[in-house]
Amino acid sequence: MTQPPLRFDIWFLFKIYFPIFYLFSSFSPPPTIHGSSLLSSCSFPTHVQSRKRHENSMILLCGLPEKDSVDGSEPPIATLCEEEVVMDNGILQVTLSNPEGIVTGVRYGNIDNLLEVINDESNRGYWDLVWSAPGTTGTTGIFDVIKGTNFNVIVENDEQVEISFTRTWDSSQEGKLVPLNIDKRFVLLRGCSGFYSYAIYEHLAEWPAFNLAETRIAFKLRKDKFHYMAIADNRQRNMPLPGDRLPPRGQALAYPEAVLLVNPVEPDLKGEVDDKYQYSCENKDIRVHGWICRDESVGFWLITPSDEFKSGGPQKQNLTSHVGPTTLAVYLSAHYSGEDLVPKFNAGEHWKKVFGPVFMYCNSLFDGADPLWLWDDAKEQMIIEVQSWPYNFPASEDFPKSDQRGNVSGRLLVQDRYVYDDYISASGAFVGLAPPGDVGSWQRECKDYQFWTRADENGFFSINNIRAGDYNLYAWVPGFIGDYKYNVVVNITSGCDIDMGVLVYEPPRNGPTLWEIGIPDRSAAEFYVPDPNPKYINKLYVNHPDRFRQYGLWERYAELYPNEDLVYTVGTSDYAKDWFFAQVTRKKDINKYQGTTWQIKFTLDDLDQSSTYKLRVAIASATFSELQVRVNNPNANRPLFSSGLIGRDNSIARHGIHGLYWLFNVDVPGARLVAGDNTIFLTQPRSTSPFQGIMYDYIRFEGLLLYRLGEGRVVLDNGVLQVSLSNPKGFVTGIRYNGIDNLLEDQNDESDRGYWDVVWSGEGITRKKGSLDKIETTNFTVISQKEHQKKEMKFGLKSKLQIFQLMNQNGKIFDRFNYMAIADNRKRYMPQPDDRLNNRSQALAYPEAVLMANPVEPEFLGEVDDKYQYSSESKDIKVHGWICNNPPVGLWQIIPSNEFRSAGPLKQFLTSHVGPTSLNVMHSTHYAGADLKMKLEAGEAWKKVYGPVFVYLNSLSNGGQAQMLWEDAKKQMTMEVQSWPYDFLASNDFPPSNQRGKTSGRLVLQDGYVSVKNIPANGAYVGLAPPGDVGFWQRECKGYQFWTTANADGEFSINNIRTGNYSLYAWLPGFVGDYKYDDVITITPGSDIKMDNLVYVPPRDGPTVWEIGIPDRSAAEFYVPDPNPKYINKLFVNHPDRLALFNFYKIISFRKKDGTYQGTTWQIKFKLNKIDKSGTYKLRLALATANVAQLLVRVNEALEKPPLFSTGIIGKDNTIARHGIHGLYWLYNVNVPSSSLLEGDNTISLTQTESISPFQGIMYDYIRLEGPPSSKL
C-alpha cells in the first residue's frame, strides 16, 4: 500500500479582502473693521492682532442701575426683566423673550435692531424643529418654534454671561409637543462682537417614540437693511426682497421654493429665478455665511466652527442663507437625502445630544470703505472660531472641553493592483469617526456625533478633539469606489491619543478595467451640465463652477434628446460632453412623463463566455428611482439587475449634484456578451414626476483575470497577487506579489514549495512515524466564483498539514525572507538554511538541533537553532510568518479558528522556522506522542474539514519600517477571527454561521477547604469536544473542538459550534483535575443552549498539609536554570520562555561518567507535629508531561519494595527535548496510610526509574499532601 485509504479535497480561495493697525502710506489702506466703536474680538486667543478686547467688565443685573467700570468706560450689562432678558457687553445688545428664549432684538452699531422688527417677536431669532409621531413616513411633520418655559442664569462673571431657557416635557403634553427636554443656551463673552448659542436635547427612556425630521437655529434680518448675501468667495450677490417672491411681482414655478422674478423692486433682478436651494452647501463647507447692510456697513454672520453635531457626514448638504433675509444653522435635516436622514427614536431609548455652539458674529466699517470687506473679516473670524474649538466657555457638563476628548491619527493607503503595483497613498481621503455600524453607514447616521478630516497627500490623517465614546473609523477616497471601515471599534477616552498605524483600503475590484465613465468622487459634476433655459436663470451661476445650481435643468434633457435617449459609445464619446448629468424622465404631456433608457456601446475583442464580468455602477443621487440593467437585449422581460425602488434625495429639483451614495456591483455572465459590439442598457422606468431620476457618479466594466489555465498549471490573479498551482496536482508553485516574481523558493522542485502533506501508516503499526505523503491530486475543478470570494477551486484533496517554503535568494540572508515573527516577544532575524549544514554547523543531541559554528552572518556564531524552540500552544497560534526587508513584504499564516485542530487549546504545534518555512499544523503527535495518533478502523466512516486558513501577504510603501508588517498582520488576524466562520466557502461540509449553534452558562467551583462559598471559575478553559471520559478532550483527534475561557464571574459563551453531539469539558487554573458535564449536548442549526450554573468539585479529601507548585498544567513556575553558555538562542535569554533554550535542564534521568544514564530520586522532606490516625492521607501528583517514564512513590522508606505507588510506564511526549514546558496532563491520587507517617520528620521519595535516554523524565505540575477528611490542621 503506497497511499492512505483516504479521499482528499484541497481547496484554494481568493479573498478580496488681518488687519492690524495700518499706517497710511501712498497705498490705500484696507478698511478698519470694528464692533461698536472699538476694534474687538472674542475673549480667547487670536492671531488677528488688530482685534483687541473690550476692557469693560461683564455683569448680570436685575433691575439695578448702571455702574461705572474701573476704567471709566460704560460697563456692559445683561438685564433681566419680567418679559425679556437683555445681554449687553458694550459692543452689542441681545434681547430675548422671557421665558421663551426667542431672540427678539440684536442692537449693534447705529442700528437699533438687526432683526426684522415688523415680524412677530417669535419670528425673528429662534430655534425650531420638525417632529412627527412614530410610524409616520416621509420628512414632514409638526413645525415647532421652541419656546422655553423657564429661565435661568447659568454663569455670570466678569468674562461671560450664559443664560438658559428650558422646556421640560411630561406625559400631559403627549401628542402636543415633541417628547424632549430642551435647554437653549445663549452666551455673551467680554469684548466679543457677537453671541453664541447651543442647545441640549434629551429624550428619556420612559418617554414615547417619535421622529425628528429637522432642527436648526434661524435669524430673520431686516429686509430694509440687509440686501447683500455671501456664502462663499464665489457665491455672493445682491438678493431680491421677500416681496419680490409674491404675486404679482413673482411667478410660482414647479415647486413653492422656486419663483421667477417678473417685476422685482430692483429691475436688475427681473427674469431671474430665486430658490433657497440654490444656496445650499455641503456640511464641510458651511463655516460662515450671512448678510451685509451696505448703507450702515454692518454685517451679520453665522459661524459654524465644527460639524461634529451635524448629521450625515461631511458631504451632507444643508441650507445656509436665502431671501428673507434669512440665515440658518441647520443641524439635522432630510434635505438631499430623504427619510434615511430622519432619526426615529423608540420608546425605551435614551438619547441626548448637544447642538452647537454656533456663533452669531457682527462687524462693521467706519471709514467709508467697501462694505464687502466685512466678508473677508468674517472669514478671518471664522478661522479664529475653528481654531478655538472645542470652546472652553460653555458651562454645560454635556459639552466636553478639549482635555476631556481624545485624538486619533494614522495613515490610509489604497491597494488596487490594477491601478498601481504598490500601495497608493490615500491623498485627500475623507477619514472620520462615527457611531459603529455597517460599511458606509455614516452617511445615514443622524443621532450622534461624527468627526471628520482629510488625509494629506501621503495619506496621513489626524482627527482631534473627539468626544469620548465608541466609534468605527470610516473613510472614502476620491478616485476609488466604495467605502472603507476599520472593523475594530475605536474607544475614545479622555486624553487618549490613538495611533491607528497604517490602514489599507482595498476597493471593490474583480479584474482589469475594460472601460469606465466618469470620476469616482460621489458627484455628477464632471458630466455634461447644460446651459439653463434663458427664461430661468440665476445670474450668479452663469459661467460658474456650480452651473448645476440653475433652475429647470431637468427639462433640458428632452430638448437635447427629443425622440431618442442618450447613447454613449466607449472610445468615442466624452462623458464631459455626451453624458447628461442626470437620467431624468421625459415629459410627454401635461403632468405625464415616461422613463428613459440610456445605452452604453462597447466592443469586446476577447471574450470568455464561461466567465463572469463585473459592472460597477456608483450612483451620486437617486429620487424615487429604479435602475434596471440589461445586456444586448433591451426588451428582456426580466432585467439582468434591478436596484428596486431607491432614493428620496430630491437632488434634481434642489440643484444638488449629489445626494446619498449607492454602489451596485452587477455580475454580467460572459454568456450574455458577444465577441465584437455589445450594448448595456440602463433603464430608469419610474415616471410620475419630472424630478425622478438618477445621477451617476461613476460606471466601470471589469474583465476577469482571476484564473487562467496553462500547460500543467492554474493561475489565480485578483490584481493584488498571483498564485500559480500545478494542474492537476495542486501544489502551489509560485506566489507573485509586490514586484517579486515568486515568494516561494523557486530553486526547489515544484512539489517542495507550497503543499499539503500527511504522515500515515498501515494497520497495526504502533510507532508515531509513518510514510510522508505530499498530497498529489488527480483532478481539478472550478467550484464557484463570486465577487468577494473570487475563485474557489477543488483539487480533490483535504488533509492535515500545510507547509509553505519561502524564498531565500542567493544565499544573502538579508535579501529576502530573513525575519520571523510568531509573537510580540518571539520574533527575530533568522539563520539561513545553509547555516544548518555540516560545513557550517555542529550536530547536537537530535537532528533538529544544531550549533552554528560558521554561519554566513557572524552574529549567529555560537547559537543553537532548533525548530521546536518556536512551537506554540494551539490557542496562541493565530498568526505567524516571515518578513522580507527589501522590498518590505510579509507572508503570514493566519489561523482564525482552532475548531479543526486536535487535542484542545493547550496542544503544542510547530509554527515557522528556518527554511524559511511557515507551517499550519492541524494534527500532529508532537508533545503528546502516540496518544494523539489517529487510528481509523476498517468499516469506520470519517470526514473532516481542516481549515480554512488564510495565507496573507502585505507590503509597505517606501520609507516604512518593515516590522510594521507584523502589526498589520495582527490586525488582519483580528479581522479574520471576527469573520469566522467564513461565509464564502462553497463546500457543503463547511457550515456557515446560521447552520451552527451556541451554548453559554456559568461555571463555579466548590472546594470547602478553600472557601465556604462557591468560587467563580475565573479563567477556566471551557469547551465542547466529542463525548468521552473526563479529560478525554486532550487525547481526542478525530472530531471538532470548540473552546473559550470564562470571565471573572465564571460566565462563558461558546459560539459557532458545528452541529453534532458533544460533551462539555473544563479545567480551571489553580485547581487540579478536570470537569465534565454528565449529559450529552446536541447542537442543531441556530440552537442557543443555556447551561446555567455548573458546579465543579475538584479532587479533595482533606485540608492541605503542604503543596508544591501551581496547578496550571505547566512546569513554568519551577526553577529553570541558565543554559550552558555554549548552547544558547539569544531570543530566549532573559525571556519568559527561557525553557526554549537548548539543554536547559534535565529532569529525572542522570548521565553517568561512562555516558550511560540512570534514574533519579527526588525527596520531599516535611514535618508533622501530629498525625491523624483516624484516616488516610492523600498525595496528589499532577504531572505536566511524561516521556517514557515511570514514577515510584515511597514514604519514609527509600528502598521500600514494592513502592507505595507506581505509575507504570507513562507518556511519549518528548517535551524535554522539544523545549516544551508541558505535554499531556496526568493526575495521580495516592493514598498514604497514616501508619506510614511519623510525628516529626518525614520524607517522600519520588523515583523516575527509566534511564535509556537523557530525554526520559517527568515535569511536575503540582504536588499536594492532604490530611484525612476529619483532620483539623
Summarize the topology.
Blueprint: E1 11-13, E2 33-34, E3 59-61, E4 77-80, E5 84-88, E6 92-97, E7 103-108, E8 125-132, E9 142-145, E10 150-156, E11 160-167, E12 181-189, E13 194-203, E14 210-220, E15 228-232, E16 235-238, E17 250-252, E18 259-261, E19 273-274, E20 281-282, E21 288-293, E22 298-303, E23 317-318, E24 321-322, E25 326-332, E26 344-345, E27 351-365, H1 373-387, E28 406-414, E29 424-425, E30 430-434, E31 451-454, E32 460-466, E33 469-476, E34 484-492, E35 497-505, E36 513-518, H2 556-560, E37 567-569, H3 575-578, E38 583-584, E39 586-589, E40 592-594, E41 596-604, E42 612-625, E43 628-631, E44 641-642, E45 646-648, E46 662-669, E47 676-684, E48 693-702, E49 707-710, E50 713-717, E51 721-726, E52 732-737, E53 754-760, E54 771-774, E55 781-786, E56 790-794, E57 801-805, E58 817-823, E59 826-829, E60 841-843, E61 850-852, E62 864-865, E63 872-873, E64 879-884, E65 889-894, E66 908-909, E67 912-913, E68 917-921, E69 950-955, H4 964-978, E70 997-1005, E71 1015-1016, E72 1021-1025, E73 1042-1045, E74 1051-1057, E75 1060-1067, E76 1075-1076, ...
Parallel strand pairs: 3-4, 28-35, 37-41, 70-78
Antiparallel strand pairs: 1-56, 2-27, 4-5, 5-6, 6-7, 8-9, 8-14, 10-11, 11-12, 12-13, 13-27, 14-25, 14-26, 15-16, 15-21, 17-18, 18-19, 20-23, 21-22, 22-27, 24-25, 28-29, 28-32, 30-31, 30-33, 33-34, 36-48, 38-48, 39-40, 41-47, 42-45, 42-46, 42-48, 43-44, 43-47, 49-50, 50-51, 51-52, 53-54, 53-57, ...
